[in-house]
């Protein structure tokens, strides 16, 4: 009986010490694509998984994360080894806020070789010109970076700005922001948005713009009928090695070869 109790206690201790590593291991490890030398087709854990019908996000080869201060310290080497090919990192919000973890995340991702872009959370009580200038002031210009991102969504929890401009105004201001960043960084930013914002503002009418769409309960082709997307955010509760707690998971729309062309990476062999 004593030996059984000792064994059970030891198992409990091992679970408490080692369970974290086991829990964060990919459900399906990424495999190396010999043509591109990229890690592809991973499947990560999810603390609130969705029962996908039809085409699911795991059928796409290229996966990535987006992060902000909420993720705290990140082991970017583990993230890359787990098959994450890109990261969008929160940089700025409005015209006077910079994410306190931006520089640490930015440098860590670069050192680990994770392709990165920065995103700006739009604040409807500041002009687009002010916000674009603030982003440029804080995000370095480097030709190896991914296109940056304009995050457009309703902020229901804002204590300082309750404005909800009409769609025409939002689209006009977004054009100013996108044009300004394109002129400075050399590539037009991607626009991230949500289902309600997309439907209520007509933001999908923006010219020459690629979209990153949030859809955690259905494929974008059913949730955003007729929309063309470059990135799909399919969960906000993903579990990725190297990241403490839940993290947003995303896929790129197409093949590893297309990813290399789009991201400006090394040409496939």
Number of domains: 1
At the first level of CATH, what is the class? Answer: Alpha Beta
What would you report as the Rg, rounded to the nearest angstrom? 20 Å
Average pLDDT value?
Answer: 91
Order of helices and strands: HEEEEHEEHEHEHEHEHEEH
Structural class: alpha/beta
CATH superfamily: Glycosidases
Number of helices: 8
Provide the low-confidence segments as ranges. 1-22
**Under the CATH scheme, which architecture would be assigned?**
Alpha-Beta Barrel
The end-to-end distance, rounded to whole angstroms, is 62 Å
In the CATH hierarchy, the third-tier topology is known as TIM Barrel
How much helical structure, as a percent, in the residues?
25-40%
* Percent strand: 15-25%
Shape descriptor: globular
Strand order of the largest sheet: 4-5-7-8-9-10-11-12
Largest sheet: 8 strands, mixed, barrel
The beta-strand count equals: 12
SSE diagram, text form:
Blueprint (H helix, E strand, L loop, with lengths): L1 H23 L6 E3 L4 E3 L4 E2 L16 E5 L8 H6 L2 E10 L3 E2 L3 H11 L2 E7 L6 H11 L10 E4 L14 H19 L4 E4 L1 H7 L9 E4 L5 H4 L7 E9 L7 E6 L3 H8 L6
Parallel strand pairs: 4-5, 5-7, 7-8, 8-9, 9-10, 10-11
Antiparallel strand pairs: 1-2, 3-11, 4-12, 5-6, 11-12
């Amino acid at each position: 009986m004593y030996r059984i109790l000792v064994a059970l206690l030891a198992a409990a201790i091992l679970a408490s010490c080692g369970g974290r590593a086991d829990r964060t291991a990919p459900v399906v490890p990424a495999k190396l694509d010999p043509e591109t030398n990229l890690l592809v087709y991973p499947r990560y854990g999810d603390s609130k998984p969705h029962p996908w019908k039809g085409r699911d996000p795991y059928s796409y080869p290229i996966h990535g994360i987006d992060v902000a201060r909420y993720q705290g310290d990140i082991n970017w080497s583990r993230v890359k080894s787990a098959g994450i090919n890109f990261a969008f990192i929160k940089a700025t919000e409005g015209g006077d806020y910079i994410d306190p973890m931006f520089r640490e995340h930015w440098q860590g991702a670069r050192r680990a070789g994770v392709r990165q872009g920065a995103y700006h959370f739009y604040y409807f009580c500041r002009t687009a010109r002010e916000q674009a200038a603030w982003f440029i002031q804080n995000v370095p210009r480097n030709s190896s970076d991914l296109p940056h991102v304009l995050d457009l969504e309703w902020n229901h929890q804002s204590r300082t700005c309750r404005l909800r401009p009409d769609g025409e105004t939002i689209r006009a201001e977004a054009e100013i922001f996108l044009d300004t960043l394109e002129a400075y960084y050399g590539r037009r930013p991607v626009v991230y948005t949500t289902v309600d914002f997309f439907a209520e503002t007509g933001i999908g009418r923006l010219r020459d713009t690629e979209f990153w769409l949030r859809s955690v309960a259905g494929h974008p082709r059913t949730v955003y009928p007729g929309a063309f997307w470059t990135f799909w955010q399919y969960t906000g509760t993903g579990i990725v090695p190297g990241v403490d707690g839940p993290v947003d998971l995303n896929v790129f729309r197409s093949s590893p070869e297309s990813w290399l062309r789009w991201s400006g990476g090394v040409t496939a062999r």
